[in-house]
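$ run holo --ligand "tetrahydrodeoxyuridine" --emit tokens
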Amino acid sequence: MALDFSVRREMFSVMRKKTMPAKVPARLLRSAKRVMKNAHAPYSKFRVGAAILLSNGRVFSGCNVENASYGMTNCAERTAIFSAVAQLGPKIEIRAVSVVNDHGVPCSPCGACRQVIYEFGPDATIFFQGTKGPKQAHITELLPEGFRLQ
Ligand code: THU
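-- output --
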């Protein structure tokens, strides 16, 4: 009988010996909340903060930056990732991402941000507010079959 997807994922995680120190979610959330206050969100009035943990232990954060030409808006997650690349170069590996908003409503990374997270963190864990409270998910749960150039 085929194993349930969540069971297979759990087994895969154990096989990869993935370890995430217990303090990581709280550390990232603190960072995300702090940077959220810098958001430029006059159009949506929805401030978002994101923090990412890299495999080298560094934490980078970012907020959403909106524009009068709405499509030019940059989400908090991409701001954090792009600033990490700008500081350290492209050889970063994202271990974890935390997202928070100032409305306290469910908010997971948008599709575009999922693809950008996947580029630098194909094994990343995402912490966010789900419909039933705080939630964590592997990037491949949020973005199955993410795009990659070989
Ligand atoms: N936004 C983010 O920054 N991250 C998300 O995960 C979801 C949406 C921003 C984009 C826009 O500035 C505002 O939230 C409303 O969509």
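-- notes --
The CA atoms of residues 25 and 127 lie 7 Å apart.
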